[in-house]
Amino acid sequence: MAYSAGMMNKRITIARRKAAEMGAFGMDSAGNRYELLGTFWASETWNKGVKSLHEGAVDAYDTVMFRMRYNPDVDRWCLIQYNGKWYEILSLNGDYQSNQLQMTAVERANQQVTIIENNQ
């Protein structure tokens, strides 16, 4: 299924994990560094899932699925920012021939991510 421009009405920011300290970067509370890939148009849908079973209690959480045009720079180690919250990609399915990228992600509720643009 091809997605029309009207369906891609959510702006998301994507940052990719990197090893080097040069260029635009950010850091999460675990000390991982990220480069800012940019802001993209996407569509989204929400799902309720179960994260874990801890001492007999089910921990429910929200997952979100983003669909956007294919981008070869987006990989499993990217983070997505949407509505001021950061999400970690759980699964990624890309097809460059049909120009589609689908990502399922979960909110990083207890981790802070700061993206800094370095103009050097």
What attributes characterize this protein structure?
120 residues, globular, Thrombin, subunit H, mainly beta, six-stranded antiparallel beta barrel
Description:
With 120 residues, the chain is mainly beta. It has strands at 10-18, 25-28, 33-54, 57-68, 78-82, 85-95, 100-107, 113-116. The chain has a six-stranded antiparallel beta barrel with strand order 1-3-4-7-6-5. A hairpin with a 4-residue loop joins strand 2 (25-28) and strand 3.
Corresponding CATH architecture: Beta Barrel
The amount of beta strand, in percent, is over 45%
Biggest sheet layout: 6 strands, antiparallel, barrel
Taking strands numbered 1, 2, ... along the chain, how are they ordered across the largest sheet?
A: 1-3-4-7-6-5
CATH superfamily: Bacteriophage SPP1 head-tail adaptor protein
Given the C-alpha coordinates, what overall shape results?
Answer: globular
What is the total number of structural domains?
A: 1
Helix content: under 10%
Total strand count, please? 8
Query: What is the rounded Rg?
Result: 15 Å
| CATH fold-type name | Thrombin, subunit H
What is the helix/strand order?
EEEEEEEE
CATH class: Mainly Beta
Q: What integer is the average pLDDT? A: 79
Low-pLDDT residue spans: 1-5
End-to-end C-alpha gap: 42 Å
Structural class: mainly beta
Number of helices: 0
